[in-house]
Write a structure and sequence with these properties.
Elements (H helix, E strand, L loop, with lengths): L1 H21 L33 H7 L1 H5 L8 H10 L2 E8 L26 E11 L10 E12 L15 E5 L2 E14 L4 E13 L25 E14 L8 E8 L12 E6 L12 H9 L21 H9 L3 E5 L9 H5 L10 H4 L9 E11 L11 E11 L5 H6 L7 E9 L11 E3 L4 H7 L17 H11 L4 H9 L12 H12 L1 E7 L11 E9 L2 E2 L11 H9 L14 E9 L9 E9 L4 E9 L6 H5 L7 E10 L14 E6 L13 E5 L5 H5 L4 H29 L9 H17 L4 H6 L16 H38 L11 H25 L10 E3 L5 E3 L2 H15 L3 H10 L8 H20 L27 H33 L1 H6 L13 H13 L10 H5 L2
Antiparallel strand pairs: 1-2, 1-9, 2-3, 3-5, 4-5, 5-6, 6-7, 7-8, 8-9, 10-11, 10-14, 11-12, 12-13, 15-16, 15-23, 16-17, 16-18, 18-19, 19-20, 20-21, 21-22, 22-23, 24-25
Length: 1057
C-alpha cells in the first residue's frame, strides 16, 4: 500500500520537477545555438560551456605546422573569454587571384546593362565571428579548441555579409547585386613566441557548383537569380581550411589581421577553389600601445607647416579645454569629412594637384573623375584611440592627448555608412598616430585637407563633454557691416510701411524675462523654420515643392539655446515675477537690431545651387525682416580655383543676399502666417558664379512659440464666426416660420428642394461628426475621422465645437419644421381640389432642373480640376496621415464633391427661383429678411477669405491642400467674388419675382378674370387668407376626413365661419 502511494506521489511530482528543471530565471541559455547542432537545440556558446569538437583529428593533420610553433599559453580563463570579441572582425576585405576556380558567383543584373562605369563596383567583404573558446584546463596548454563562423560576400551596396544571432549550418544565398556564403569552422588557437596569435580551423561549406560551359563561364546559371523558385546548385564540402594571424600587441605598424582560406582538395576536384586572402585589423576590444612611435611623432609635429592651413588658420578660434578626447570622439568617430580641393597647389604637374593625398586611388576611377575637385569624396575616421597626456600643474587639466586613428577614403559611389563599418586595410586607408596639444589644437597631415560641417543643433547638443562642464561658445560676426548696408538699401522710408509697422507686431525678445539668454533663445526658436515651401508667385505649370530649413545658430551674443528653468511655483514664482521687467509696451531693447547667423538648406534638384547656405546678417524686430549674407561651397576642379581665387573667400562664394520676411505675430487670422524667402546674387551678369535667377519662396503657414501654447488660429476664428452665422441663420429661419404661420396662403409655394439643400448641409456634421459628409468617403473605409476634424482638444476649441453642434441641431430642426409645414399645406391644398392636382405646387421638376444644373456644374468643375492637375504639385502617394498616424486614401473627386456641396448651399435660392418660374407665383413665399439674412450668412466666409491677403491654407492638419494654383479652387480669390455675385443675383431674382410679378399679376387678375378661369387647370389658385390655428386644424381634418374628397361644399367656406 505504501509503495503504491509513493508511486502515485512520484507520478504527480514528475511533471513539477520537469518544469522546475527547465526554469531559468537568469536566462542563461537564451538565444544560443551550437553551430554543430541541429536548429532546434540551444546554442552552447561561451568559454565555460561544454562544447564537443568532432574534427580534432583533421585539425591536427592540417594545422601541424601551427601547433608545432605554439608556445605555452600564459593567461587565465578571463583572458580566454576576452578572445571571442577580440578575434572577431567585421567587413574586412577578401581577394582571390586570377584562376580557374573562383569561390562564389555574382549576379550583376541588379543594374541596367547600359549603366557602364557609373554603376558602383561590387565590394568583396568578409566577417569572422568567434562562437566558442574551450577554456577548460589552461595550465600547460599550447593551444585552445575554438570554433567560429566566416561569412564572405560580394555586394553592390556593401551591406553583406549579414551575420545572424545563431549559426546552425553553412549556407549560400545568391540574388541580384549580392552573394553571401557562411562557413562553420572549428580548430585551435595558438600563440607564437614572436608576438603573433594564430587561428587554424577546418570547416564545412555549401559551395556553388561551377559549370563546364566555356562560353557562359563557370557561373552561367547565376543570372537573374530573382526569378521564381530559383535555388543555386550547391554541394556540401568539408575540405575547407582557414588560417588567421593576429598581432598580440596593437601599434602603429602592427595591427593588421591576415588570413587565408584554402581548399584541402586537389585542383582536379570539383570542390576545389583558388586561395582566398583575407585582410582586416584588430578592433575596439584590442588595446593600443602608445609610445613606440613617440620619437617619430615628436619630430613630425615640431616642424613648421609647409603650406597655409585655411582650416586651422592662426588657431585663434580653436578649443583649448581639457576634454580633448571627448570632443574628438563626438565630432570625428565614424563621421564623414568632406575633402577640400587643393586650391593652393602651384605645381605644374596636374597629377600632383589632383592626388588625394597619400591615398592610392588607382583602383577607383570615380575619384579621378572629379578632376581634383573631390566632389562626393569623403574621409572617415575609424578606430580612434585617444589617451590624455600627463596632467599639468596642480588644478589644471591634461595638457593634451595622444591619438591614433585609421583614415579611410570613401569614393563618391560608395555609401558612407557602409564605408564607416569596413575594417579592411589597403591603399584607401591610412593608419596614423599623433598628438593633440592645447597650443596647435589639431593633428597635422599635409597636404590633404578635409573638414566636416557641423549642423547648428548638433553643435550645441554635442558640446557638453562628460566629465566636464558644458562648453561656452562665442560667435564672431564677420558680415555684420555688409548686412547692415543690405538692410539700409532695402528699407527706404515709406508712409504705408511705417503705418503697417505701427499696427503690426513681429517676433521679438520677450520683455518679461530677466535672463537675456532665455529671451534670445525663445526668439531664436521663433525665427527657426522647418517647413515646406513653394515658389512665389505660384507658377501655373508643374513645379517642385522643396522643404526649407532655416536653423538659427546664434542670435546676438547667444550661441545655441539656453532654455529657461522649469515652471516655478509658490514663492519662487512670485519672486521671479518681481525680478522680471514688465511685458507691457515696446522697449528699445526688444526692438533693437540683432546680429544673427544661420544655416539654410533647401531640398530638390531645382535648388541645387543654393541647397546649403551659411548665413550671417541682422534681424530687425520692427518689421520682422532678416537681412543675411550667404556663402555657398563651390565644387569645381582644382585648376578652376586659380581663376576664381580673387572672388572667393576660403573657397566659398559669399556674393549672395538672402532676405527672410516673417509674418506678424498679431492679426494672423487676417494675414496668412507665411514666411517669404528671397535669394539673389550680387555678382555681375556674365560671372560664372552668378546665380541663374533670383529664388523666391513662400512657406506654408508657421506657428510661433506663444501661438503653440494658446493660439487664436484661423480655426478658432472661423469657429466663432460659425457660431455667429449659425445664430443669425437660426434667427432668419425663425422669422420665416413666424411669417408662414401668419400668412398660411403662401406656405405651399416654399420650395422643399431649397429647404432640403439647407437641411443636407446642417445634417452632415450631425451624422458624421465631421464638417463634411464626403471627407469620410475620401478616407477609404472605416477608421477615425479625418484629421481636419480631430480638432485641438483645448478648452476653447471644445466649447466652440459644442456650441456649433447645438446650433446646427437647432437650425436643422427649424428647417425640418419649415419643411413639415410646407408639406402639410400642400396636402391640404390637394384635399381642396382632388380633381385638379395640377393646382398643387410640386417640386419634382424643381428637383430635376436643380439637380441637372448642379450635375452639369460639378462635371465642369471636375473637368477643370483634371485639366489643371498638370499645373499642380502632386504627392507621390495619394494619401494623407491623420492625427493618430493612420494613412487614408485621398480621392480628388470626393474632396471636390465635398466642396461642391458647400457651393450648392451658397446657391440655396436656385430651387426657389426655378419653382417661382414654374409655379407662376403671385405671392411672397419667402420673407425678405429670411432670404437676405441667410444669403448674407452664406457669403460671410467668402468675404472673410477675400479680405485675407492669400488663399487660406490650414497648417495644423495633415491632409490640408498644398499650395496650388489658387485660381482653380472654389474658395479662391475668384470664387470669393463670383460665388457671392451669383448668390446676390439669386436673391435679387427672388425679390423681383415676389414683388414685381405680384403687382403685374394682380392687375391682370382684375382685367382678365375670365381668361384666367379658362387656364385654371394649369395656373395655381391662391388660397384665401386664414388664421394659422384654423388652418392647422383643417390640415388634420382634411387628411383624415373622407368627406373632403368628392362633390360637396368647399372646405374654405366653412373655415371662415
Amino acid at each position: 500500500m505504501k509503495a503504491t502511494t509513493l508511486q502515485f506521489i512520484g507520478a504527480l511530482l514528475l511533471p513539477l520537477l520537469a518544469v522546475a528543471s527547465s526554469f531559468d530565471p537568469f536566462h542563461r541559455n537564451d538565444g544560443r545555438t551550437d553551430p554543430m547542432m541541429g536548429s532546434g537545440q540551444q546554442q552552447q556558446q561561451g568559454p565555460f560551456i561544454p562544447h564537443e569538437y568532432l574534427r580534432f583529428a583533421e585539425v591536427k593533420r592540417h594545422c601541424r605546422s601551427v601547433l608545432s610553433a605554439g608556445a605555452e599559453l600564459k593567461f587565465d580563463a578571463n583572458r580566454a573569454a576576452a578572445l571571442m570579441p577580440e578575434l572577431s572582425f567585421v567587413k574586412g576585405d577578401w581577394t582571390q587571384g586570377p584562376g580557374s576556380a573562383p569561390l562564389i558567383p555574382f549576379d550583376g543584373t541588379d543594374m541596367p546593362s547600359d549603366a557602364g562605369a557609373g554603376a558602383p563596383a561590387p565590394l568583396p567583404l568578409a566577417t569572422f565571428v568567434m562562437t566558442h573558446v574551450d577554456a577548460a584546463g589552461l595550465r600547460g596548454k599550447t593551444a585552445l579548441n575554438v570554433s567560429g563562423v566566416l561569412g564572405v560576400a560580394v555586394s553592390r551596396n556593401g551591406t553583406g555579409p549579414e551575420m545572424g544571432p545563431s549559426y546552425v549550418s553553412p549556407e549560400l544565398k545568391v540574388w541580384p547585386g549580392s552573394t553571401e556564403m557562411k562557413m562553420l569552422f572549428e580548430g585551435v588557437y595558438t600563440e607564437t613566441g614572436d608576438g603573433e596569435s594564430v587561428l587554424c580551423m577546418v570547416g564545412n561549406a555549401m559551395l556553388p557548383k561551377r559549370a563546364d560551359d566555356a562560353a557562359a563561364g563557370p557561373w552561367g546559371w547565376a543570372k537573374h537569380t530573382d526569378r521564381n523558385n530559383f535555388q543555386p546548385p550547391v554541394r556540401r564540402d568539408e575540405g575547407v581550411l582557414l588560417v588567421l594571424r593576429y598581432p598580440t600587441t596593437m601599434t602603429l605598424t602592427n595591427r593588421a589581421v591576415r588570413g587565408e582560406l584554402t581548399s584541402t582538395h586537389g585542383k582536379s576536384d570539383a570542390a576545389y577553389f583558388d586561395a582566398v586572402h583575407l585582410l582586416s585589423q584588430l578592433g575596439a576590444y584590442s588595446n593600443y600601445k602608445f609610445g613606440s612611435e613617440d620619437e617619430l611623432v615628436s619630430k613630425a609635429c615640431s616642424q613648421d607647416r609647409p603650406y597655409h592651413d585655411d582650416v586651422i588658420g592662426d588657431g585663434g578660434g580653436l578649443y583649448r579645454g581639457g576634454s580633448l578626447c571627448g570632443i574628438l570622439d563626438m565630432f570625428s568617430s565614424e563621421d564623414a569629412f568632406a575633402v577640400v580641393p587643393n586650391r593652393d597647389c602651384n605645381s605644374t604637374d596636374d597629377a600632383v594637384c589632383k592626388r588625394l593625398g597619400p591615398f592610392e586611388t588607382d583602383d577607383d576611377k570615380s575619384i579621378d573623375e572629379t578632376d581634383g575637385g573631390f566632389k562626393g569624396v569623403s574621409i572617415v575616421m575609424q578606430d580612434i584611440r585617444c589617451e590624455p597626456t600627463t596632467a599639468g600643474p596642480a588644478g589644471e587639466r591634461s595638457a593634451g592627448a595622444k591619438v591614433s586613428a585609421v583614415f579611410r577614403a570613401v569614393p563618391p559611389r560608395e555609401h558612407r555608412y557602409t564605408a564607416a563599418k569596413r575594417s579592411g586595410l589597403g591603399g584607401m586607408t591610412l593608419i596614423a598616430v599623433g598628438q593633440i596639444t592645447r597650443v596647435d589644437g589639431a593633428a597635422q597631415y599635409p597636404p590633404l585637407t578635409f573638414r566636416r560641417a557641423v549642423h547648428p543643433s548638433e553643435l550645441w547638443n554635442r558640446f557638453g563633454v562628460s566629465g566636464g562642464a558644458p562648453l561656452s561658445m562665442t560667435y564672431e560676426y564677420t558680415k555684420a557691416k555688409q548686412a547692415g548696408e543690405f538692410l539700409t538699401r532695402s528699407e527706404p522710408f515709406n508712409l504705408g510701411t511705417a503705418m503697417a509697422k505701427s499696427l503690426l507686431s513681429y517676433p521679438r525678445k520677450p520683455g518679461n524675462l530677466a535672463d537675456e539668454s532665455n529671451a534670445l533663445s525663445m526668439l531664436a526658436d521663433d525665427l527657426t523654420l522647418h517647413v515646406p515651401a513653394v515658389p512665389d508667385p505660384l507658377p501655373r505649370e508643374r513645379f517642385e515643392r522643396p522643404f526649407l530649413q532655416l536653423e538659427v545658430l546664434s542670435l546676438g551674443p547667444l550661441v545655441g539655446r539656453n532654455y529657461p528653468a522649469p515652471v516655478f511655483s509658490g514663492e519662487e514664482q512670485a519672486k521671479r515675477g518681481k525680478e522680471a521687467p514688465s511685458a507691457s509696451g515696446t522697449t528699445t531693447e526688444t526692438t533693437a537690431v540683432l546680429n544673427v547667423s544661420a544655416e539654410l538648406t533647401l531640398s530638390g534638384d531645382t535648388y541645387a545651387n543654393v541647397s546649403t547656405l551659411s548665413l550671417e546678417g541682422v534681424y530687425n524686430p520692427v518689421d520682422g525682416r532678416m537681412y543675411l549674407i550667404g556663402c555657398r561651397a563651390i565644387d569645381a576642379p582644382w585648376r578652376a580655383f586659380s581663376s576664381l581665387a580673387s572672388s572667393l573667400e576660403d573657397g566659398m562664394d559669399c556674393s549672395i543676399e538672402v532676405r527672410v520676411d516673417y509674418p506678424p505675430t498679431t492679426a494672423q487670422w487676417l494675414i496668412n502666417p507665411t514666411a517669404k524667402v528671397r535669394i539673389s546674387s550680387t555678382r555681375e551678369s556674365g560671372d560664372p558664379l552668378r546665380l541663374d535667377a533670383t529664388t523666391a519662396l513662400q512657406t506654408l503657414p508657421i506657428i510661433y512659440r506663444e501661438q503653440r501654447q494658446d493660439i487664436l488660429s484661423r480655426r478658432s476664428v472661423e469657429g466663432i464666426l460659425r457660431v455667429a452665422t449659425l445664430g443669425a441663420a437660426i434667427g432668419a429661419e425663425f422669422t420665416q416660420l413666424m411669417y408662414i404661420k401668419a400668412h398660411t396662403d403662401v406656405m405651399p409655394y416654399v420650395s422643399l428642394v431649397m429647404l432640403g439643400v439647407q437641411a443636407l448641409g446642417y445634417s452632415m456634421p450631425l451624422i458624421t461628426g465631421a464638417e463634411a459628409l464626403f471627407a469620410r468617403i475620401a478616407a477609404a473605409g472605416a477608421g477615425p475621422a479625418p484629421p481636419s476634424y480631430v480638432v485641438d482638444k483645448s478648452q476653447l476649441y471644445w466649447v466652440i465645437d459644442c456650441v456649433v453642434k447645438i446650433l446646427i441641431l437647432g437650425a436643422f430642426l427649424l428647417t425640418l419644421r419649415l419643411a413639415q409645414k410646407v408639406w402639410r399645406s400642400r396636402i391640404r391644398m390637394l384635399t381642396r381640389s382632388p380633381l385638379e392636382p395640377g393646382r398643387v405646387p410640386s417640386d419634382r421638376k424643381v428637383f430635376l432642373y436643380s439637380f441637372s444644373a448642379h450635375l452639369l456644374g460639378f462635371m465642369v468643375i471636375l473637368l477643370g480640376r483634371y485639366v489643371s492637375a498638370l499645373g499642380r504639385p502632386v504627392r507621390a502617394e495619394a494619401s494623407y496621415m491623420d492625427a493618430r498616424g493612420r494613412s487614408h486614401a485621398l480621392r480628388q473627386w470626393a474632396v471636390t464633391l465635398e466642396e461642391y456641396v458647400g457651393l450648392a448651399q451658397d446657391l440655396f435660392l436656385l430651387p426657389q427661383v426655378i419653382g417661382n418660374v414654374l409655379w407662376r407665383i403671385s405671392c411672397r413665399p419667402l420673407k425678405k429678411s429670411y432670404y437676405v439674412s441667410v444669403t448674407a450668412v452664406r457669403l460671410l466666409p467668402h468675404l472673410y477669405d477675400y479680405v485675407r491677403q492669400a488663399p487660406a491654407i490650414n497648417p495644423y492638419f495633415a491632409e490640408e491642400y498644398e499650395f496650388v494654383n489658387a485660381s482653380l479652387d472654389f474658395y479662391s480669390a475668384f470664387g470669393d467674388v463670383a460665388i457671392p455675385l451669383a448668390a446676390v443675383a439669386l436673391a435679387a431674382a427672388v425679390y423681383v419675382q415676389q414683388r414685381w410679378n405680384y403687382k403685374i399679376i394682380s392687375r391682370t387678375v382684375k382685367t382678365q378674370q375670365k381668361k384666367l378661369q379658362h387656364l385654371g387647370s394649369r395656373v395655381y389658385e391662391r388660397l384665401p387668407s386664414m388664421s394659422s390655428g384654423n388652418f392647422e386644424a383643417e390640415l388634420v381634418a382634411g387628411v383624415n376626413d373622407g368627406t373632403a374628397i368628392g362633390i360637396g361644399p368647399r372646405r374654405d367656406a366653412s373655415l371662415t365661419s
